[in-house]
Specification:
With about 120 residues, the protein is an all-beta fold. It contains no helices and eleven strands.
């Protein structure tokens, strides 16, 4: 029913920038929290950043000062502006949306590759 559609991934050089977008389609409600997670080869999926419906944000220490999460004007839309990218940021990035009553949903993932 609900699908999270992601875009914006790609290949960039170290120091470059990317902007990821995620929009929830098919929902009849607003999500309480949305965010981004990432998973690199051989590693567990980890939190990158989240934002609540009230605008409260949370960032992993490794991306603080470089990444910015925000909500769009469209319903259930979230963005991740990634600046000063490092090779260690290379991973598949997943959009996440959560509602207390209806549960959570994952996007299909978008590849971000940062070359040195």
């Amino acid at each position: 029913q609900v699908q999270l559609v992601e875009s914006g991934g790609g290949l960039v050089q170290a120091g470059g920038s990317l902007r990821l977008s995620c929009a929830a389609a098919g929902s009849t409600f607003s999500f309480d929290k949305m965010g981004w997670y990432r998973q690199a080869p051989g590693k567990e999926r980890e939190l990158v950043a989240t934002i609540t419906s009230g605008g409260i944000t949370n960032y992993a220490d490794s991306v603080k000062g470089r990444f910015t999460i925000s909500r769009g004007d469209a319903k259930n839309t979230v963005y991740l502006q990634m600046n000063s990218l490092k090779p260690e940021d290379t991973a598949v990035y997943y959009c996440r949306a959560f509602h207390t009553r209806y549960g959570g949903y994952w996007g299909q993932g978008t590849q971000v590759t940062v070359s040195s």
